[in-house]
Design goal:
Order of helices and strands: H
Largest sheet: none
Distance between the termini: 64 Å
Radius of gyration: 23 Å
Number of strands: 0
Structural class: mainly alpha
Length: 58
């Protein structure tokens, strides 16, 4: 794409119904639950490994 074909666009206004925005935000919240669980499992595994390596019981 050449410089002549590239055009800049500025979005000034976006009209979206209120309940569509609420629905979108609820979907985001529900989608974040598995992500939080996955991150918690990863954090637990890493913490367990680091704790076992840095503070052995023997």
């Amino acid at each position: 794409m050449s410089d002549e074909e590239a055009k800049k666009v500025i979005v000034v206004d976006l009209q979206m119904p209120f309940f569509s925005i609420v629905t979108l935000m609820v979907k985001w919240a529900l989608a974040s639950i598995p992500a939080i669980i996955i991150l918690a499992v990863i954090f637990s595994v890493v913490s367990g490994l680091m704790g076992g390596l840095l503070f052995p019981r023997f």
